[in-house]
Amino acid sequence: MKAIILVICSLFATSVWANTYSIGDQLETLKLQDQYEADYAVDQKVTRVLFSRSMDGGNLIQEALETDPALYETNSLAYVADISGMPSLIARFVAIPQFKKFDYRVALDREGEITKALPAEKDQATLIELTDNKITQISYFDSTESLLEALK
C-alpha cells in the first residue's frame, strides 16, 4: 500500500514540475488585469518579467522599482504578482489599495491559474528574460541589491 501511495505521489509531483516554464520554452501571452482592473497583457513587447508569488518577493520588486523607477519604463519590463494565496478580504481592502499607490502597473493574478506555470522560489523575486516570448533566462533574487544589479 505504501508503495502505491509513493508511486501516485511521484507521478503527481512529476506532472506539477513538468508544467513549470523553463529556459527555451515559449511563454504564452498572459492576460491579466492590473491594480485598477484594466486589461494588462504580457506579450511579445515584453522582454523582462518580474514575478512574485509571495509578499517577500513582492517587497523586493517594489523596493527595486522605487529605487530606480526608470527601469520599469525603459526595459520593456512587466511586473506580475500572484496574489491568490492572500485571503480575498485582505487582497481587496489592503493589498490592492497598496498596489494603487505605485507609480507603475502591476498585473495581478487573483486566482493563481494564469501564473501557476511561472517559475518561483519561496520568498524570492523571479526575473524571466524573454526574446519574442521565448524564455532565455530565469533568475531568482533574495535581495534588492542583486535584483537591481540584474535589471541594469
Q: What are the low-pLDDT stretches, counting only 5+ consecutive residues below 50?
A: 1-18
- What about the largest sheet? 5 strands, mixed
Number of strands: 7
What is the H-and-E element order? HEEEHHEHEEEH
User: Mean pLDDT across all residues, rounded?
Assistant: 88
**Number of H/I helices:** 5
Tell me the structural class.
alpha/beta
Q: What is the global morphology?
A: globular
From the alpha carbons, calculate the radius of gyration and give it in angstroms: 16 Å
C-alpha termini separation: 54 Å
Which strand order does the major sheet show?
5-4-3-6-7
Draw up the topology in text:
Blueprint: H1 2-18, E1 30-33, E2 39-42, E3 48-52, H2 55-67, H3 70-74, E4 77-82, H4 88-99, E5 107-109, E6 125-131, E7 134-141, H5 144-151
Parallel strand pairs: 3-4, 4-5
Antiparallel strand pairs: 1-2, 3-6, 6-7
Helix pairs in contact: 2-5
Task: Give a short overview.
The protein is an alpha/beta fold.
Summarize the structure in words.
The protein has 152 residues and is an alpha/beta fold. Helix content is 36%, strand content 24%. The protein has five helices and seven strands; from the N terminus they run αβββααβαβββα. It has helices at 2-18, 55-67, 70-74, 88-99, 144-151; strands at 30-33, 39-42, 48-52, 77-82, 107-109, 125-131, 134-141. The strands form two sheets. The chain has a five-stranded mixed β-sheet. Strand 6 (125-131) and strand 7 (134-141) form a beta hairpin. The longest helix is centred in the N-terminal third of the chain and has 17 residues, at 2-18. The protein is globular and about 40 Å long.
